[in-house]
Amino acid sequence: MTLASADKTARLTARHQGDTVVGRLWIGEKHWDFTAAPGETDVF
After folding, report:
1. How many other C-beta atoms are found inside a 10 Å radius of the C-beta of residue 34?
2. What pLDDT is stored for residue 40 in this prediction?
């Protein structure tokens, strides 16, 4: 999956890997790799 802001300064790329989602978040020139697993990333 790839998502981008309207002005293209931020974007997110992600893919399924087993039961998790792994990807990279870009904001400008900076980027962060992430892993999201069910039950471990609940923000509520």
Report:
1. 13
2. 66
